[in-house]
Amino acid sequence: MPESMDAIILKDVVKSFRKRTIRGEYTTFKSELLRWLRGKRQSRDASLITALRGINLTIPKGKTVGIIGRNGSGKSTLLKLITGIYTPTSGDLQINGRISALLDLGAGFHPDFSGRENILINGIILGMTRAEVRARMDEIIAFSELGEFIDEPVRTYSSGMYMRLAFAVATHVDPDILIIDEILAVGDEHFSKKSLAKMMDFKRQGKTIVLVTHELGTVERWCDLAAWIDGGYVRRVGKPSEVTAEYREAISLAEAQSAAFTPPALTEGGGALPQVPSEALPAEGPVRIQRVQLLDARGESLEVLSPEEGLEVRAEFSVEGPCEDVDFHVRLQAADGRTLYETSTRREAVVLSRMPNPGVLRFVVERLGALGGDYSLVVSARASKGESSGRCAFRVVSATEEEGVFRPPHRWLVEPGANSQAGVSFEPGTSPRVEVG
Amino acid sequence: MIRLVRELYQYRGLLISLVQRELKARYRGSFLGFLWTFLNPTLHMLVYVLLFTVVMRQNIPNFPFFMFVGLLPWIWFSTSVGGGASAISDRRDLLTKVRFPAQVLPTSVVVTNLCNFVLSLPLMLVLGMAYGQWPTWHVVLFPVVVLIQLTFTLALTYILAAINVTFRDLQHIVSNLLTLWFFATPVLYPLSTIQDEGARSLMLALNPMVSLMTSYQAIFYEHRLPDAEPLMALAAVSVVLLWAASSIFESRREEFAESI
């Protein structure tokens, strides 16, 4: 592929900070004097903190890439490197195209100035020329929906108005590559929809978008690619749903192991999240899960279903050795990695005699009863010699806005009291029916 | 240095809007607004006039005008250096979020104060006319002196701003040194009050502001051409200093975003 097809190419990019800059200690007379009195300065390496340990990432033109990772894993450092605010300690960084970074909304806003004046300053700071800002002024004002407030000083704005104005300016910069840090959730429902639509516009125009966010749903919905930064490296790049699923699992695993959530850059070895077992141990188990699929009642593969539908988990496995003690687990996880349900063949005393090879494990759920949201299913085959697992993600779409964790089979009835004559049974079309699975 | 200046030119839009913003913001919300550009130096001057004509008698004709001629460029210099020292370290909001050449920040401080200086010039001229001192043809050299002062001030501000990022004591040291510097510069008194020839030439050699101030006084107050020799020497020194400043600046600029 010719190089110009890629918007951003990072090769072995390393970024270290001197420790005092991270801890926010400045050199002062006193500290300098103390250091001098204590004898020469400590060796430089000892006071270095490496935030990024070797990032290799290629972002193709026209793609929307979501960057995920826990706090302190180096996401923002990466963005600042791409933007050019930081320079890499070592490694190569190649950018093809005009870049615009929305790392902060309202950079350079002055509280005493009117919205209009601030649009001009902010726009120029973001890299537009004066003429460009003037030309887009009306468009920006219209987008911000501030109406006549646009000529009031910004200090009188509510925080929502402030963010709307800032976002309006930011999105009217016309870059080839747009870098966004955690700012899509701006304003009320209506405005965030508008903001997302604006993002989609950028996407349609073939612009490259790099997005850092903690909202995994956003990544799954809007991004073409996801990159997971962990411990200063790119842990995984790939299809958003797969990357986020593994990320969620690693998080829940870390929580289960009660791994200390210290800032990774300050931890020995970069503080990466624990490896998900399915990744670490697949070769060791006697029974290996090859593929996990979700099927609907008709046997067709599915990714989206409604709460009332049933599903079938189909896991293809192969047997590589003696497997008398194998135990199949099925786990249903919520988007945040919480286990909603887990069971296993042993717990339910399922007798597994004479394992076929290759074989198919079918886990049939007559009615899922989950609420709207993103879920994943993990099937694992555990044995004393090791374990193998596979997963698949799916989404439940519900027309009803319920709350909670699951939807028990239920129906509504209004019945006549003791003195009443007539009774009506309510079964509105939207309410679930009463078939117990 | 060429790169530094070229980037400044590239980002002139940003520079201009930052300067405009500062100029507008300075008096925004105050009742007298823009009038403060004139009122500030006038009040400043009145204090010294009170001190030197009532308390300590000076035998300088048209003393208020004499003082004003030196005071205005001094205010430009001292506010630029004092404010420029923290120009970078105070703007974390911009430097860590947006990419632009950092020299824009100290430059905008110097240019903002230059604008204030230029805007308050009419006041000085009016004061001179009130004393019967009309400007003579010597004012053609005024822009040259201003240019030399601009170069010198920029160089000094760049160095201070760059160092202050990691060494924050500097901004406090600078503001105190400026007071000392003010009295070591012939603003409130003519250089000729210093009787000793040796001390005078030492002052001239050590303090670049001396030749600038005497040049302003020569042009507006004494109506003669400024002494060319010290002025040319200062011009050369300023250019060298600016070159040194830009290399210091260049070598440290990568640290700016990380250190502030």
From TrEMBL, chain A:
Residues 418-437 are annotated as: Disordered. SUPFAM superfamilies: P-loop containing nucleoside triphosphate hydrolases (SSF52540). PANTHER family: TEICHOIC ACIDS EXPORT ATP-BINDING PROTEIN TAGH. Signal peptide: none annotated. Belongs to the ABC transporter superfamily. This is ABC transporter ATP-binding protein. SMART domains: AAA. Keywords: ATP-binding, Nucleotide-binding, Transport. The keyword Nucleotide-binding applies. Residues 37-256 form the ABC transporter domain. It holds the Pfam family ABC_tran. GO terms for molecular function: ABC-type transporter activity; ATP binding; ATP hydrolysis activity. The keyword ATP-binding applies. It comes from Myxococcus xanthus. One of its GO terms (cellular component) is membrane.
UniProtKB/TrEMBL annotation, chain B:
Keywords: Cell membrane, Membrane, Polysaccharide transport, Sugar transport, Transmembrane, Transmembrane helix, Transport. PROSITE patterns: ABC_TM2. Pfam families: ABC2_membrane. It is found in: Cell membrane. InterPro entries: ABC2_TM, ABC2_TM_bact-type. Residues 32-252 form the ABC transmembrane type-2 domain. It comes from the Bacteria. GO terms for molecular function: ABC-type transporter activity. It is a multi-pass membrane protein. The chain crosses the membrane at residues 31-51, 63-88, 109-131, 137-161, 173-192, 231-249. GO terms for biological process: lipopolysaccharide transport; polysaccharide transport. GO terms for cellular component: plasma membrane. Belongs to the ABC-2 integral membrane protein family. This is Transport permease protein. It comes from Myxococcus xanthus. The lineage of its organism: Bacteria, Pseudomonadati, Myxococcota, Myxococcia, Myxococcales.
